[in-house]
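Module 6 notes. Inverse folding takes a fixed backbone as the condition and produces residue identities as the prediction. Think of it as a translation problem where the source language is geometry and the target language is the twenty amino acids. Below is one complete input and output pair. Work through it position by position during the lab.
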């Protein structure tokens, strides 16, 4: 049994100079491949259930799947709710066996974001669960624009909410399919100067791999969320497997062929965060 909380995996990462991947899952095939990849690399992994995952599969089921994988894993596995938008989302995740919840109040005015995040962090901690909050707004490629994190707001947010990890907006954007962007290093340094809470980068797929590697080692960024990059890898190998034999209709036999390539793609992602 290697079920872990977010604090369990991020505090050592902060002290020892590496980062942990928050891998966005959509179902059994990818979550199983991500745990296999983490075991092969000998690193902890955060399995994340975000809004589109929850639309497809109930949280109660996802909690059991994450915990089942964690029980058999040789590395620490965190069962994490990504982008909970309400107290009820977070409460349901805690009741479903998640060990970490992210409350996203980043669209709200700062006072409301702090007050609501504080309530959820208290609820989570009382249940032995970690809490991630977000200050500043991380936009979406082709959608809502970002609003960068103000360092003073970040310091206040960290102190007043008691979160275990803090997502920040420093040039990162969700759903990016290329890696042409880059993060705003001076803003990261200004945030690090005023708080010691482990920092989280959402939209990690859009961050160049070399920058992921250097920030994993040389900053307080301890968690990079990776979704799009691995969803693209999965989609690509699935399409190839489907097209390989037009007569084949059993989806288990098709999905089996996605496992090894998705493990390989996830291993490449995890390697950059090791701080080696
Ligand atoms: Zn996000």
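Target side of the pair, the amino acids:
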């Amino acid at each position: 049994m290697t079920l872990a909380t977010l604090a369990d995996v991020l505090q050592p990462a902060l002290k020892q100079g590496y980062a942990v991947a928050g891998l966005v899952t959509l179902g059994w095939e990818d979550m199983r491949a991500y745990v296999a990849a983490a075991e092969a690399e000998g690193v902890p992994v955060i399995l994340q259930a975000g809004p589109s995952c929850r639309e497809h599969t109930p949280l109660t089921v996802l909690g059991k799947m994450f915990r089942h994988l964690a029980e058999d894993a040789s590395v620490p596995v965190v069962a994490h709710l990504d982008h909970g938008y309400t107290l009820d989302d977070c409460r349901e995740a805690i009741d479903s066996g998640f060990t970490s919840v992210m409350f996203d109040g980043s669209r709200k005015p700062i006072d409301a974001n702090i007050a609501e995040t504080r309530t959820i962090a208290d609820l989570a901690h009382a249940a032995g669960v970690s809490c991630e909050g977000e200050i500043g707004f991380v936009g979406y490629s082709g959608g809502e624009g970002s609003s960068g994190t103000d360092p003073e707001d970040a310091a206040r947010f960290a102190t007043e909410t008691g979160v275990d990890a803090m997502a920040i907006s420093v040039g990162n954007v969700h759903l990016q399919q290329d890696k042409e962007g880059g993060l705003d290093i001076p803003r990261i340094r200004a945030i690090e100067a005023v708080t010691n809470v482990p920092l989280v980068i959402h939209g990690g797929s859009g961050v160049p791999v070399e920058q992921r590697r250097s920030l994993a080692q040389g900053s307080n960024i301890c968690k990079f969320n990776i979704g799009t990059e691995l969803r693209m890898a999965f989609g690509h190998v699935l399409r190839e497997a489907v097209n390989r034999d037009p007569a084949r209709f059993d989806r288990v036999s098709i999905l089996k062929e996605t496992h090894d390539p998705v493990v390989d793609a996830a291993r490449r992602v995890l390697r950059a965060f090791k701080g080696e």
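Reference fact for the lab report: Strands lie at 3-4, 20-25, 45-49, 77-84, 100-103, 130-135, 165-168, 199-201, 221-226.
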